[in-house]
Amino acid sequence: MVVVGRVVRPHGLRGQVVIAPETDFGAERFAVGAKVWRSIGEGPGALTIAESHVRADRWVVAFEGVTSVESAEELRDAELRIPEDARMPLGADEYYLYDLVGCEVRTSAGVDVGRVQAVYTGAGGALLSIDRDGAEVLVPLVKAMCPVIDVAGKRIVVDPPEGLLEVNLPAPAAGDDGVGEAR
Are 24 and 8 in contact (CB under 8 A)? Predict the structure, then answer.
């Protein structure tokens, strides 16, 4: 199952909820009649969408059988999921962000950077969170810095500006002049 949204809060008094989408295909995922599966409450269960509309950058949705603010409140913070095989097909050079988690990352010069542990999204775009020897390194997910993304091969080649990969590494121990073998 893959996450397509999260219930933020109830909306109104008739059981509607506000959903923060985690999909580029909101019109399909939150269409009337579509099914999603919740992750909390009485355990995983299918929910059928009875009404929906976009409000700002979120969806306001009514589910069949959820008719009061109290029953909507029980869905607060629920992850809404769909079966992985129901994902929308993508074109060439397109990928789902969660498919990048676990990819090995190397520089264009062949230096091992680490493994993608998460992908963060926000107003500034997506960032790869890379575990580099226990430290988190954030690399913007843009073509200029990530020229090669091979989801099938679970590898990403990065070409970061000087110093970006070292910014969160631990400082040298006291008495260590920093001279020595480079990483």
Answer: no
Confidence band for 42, pLDDT divided at 50, 70 and 90:
low
Domain count, the chain: 2
Contact 115, 131 (CB under 8 A): yes
Whichever domain contains 58, its CATH number is: 2.40.30.60
Q: What is the CATH number of the domain that holds 107?
A: 2.30.30.240
Structural contact between residues 81 and 88, judged by C-beta atoms closer than 8 angstroms: no
pTM of the predicted model, to two decimals? 0.62
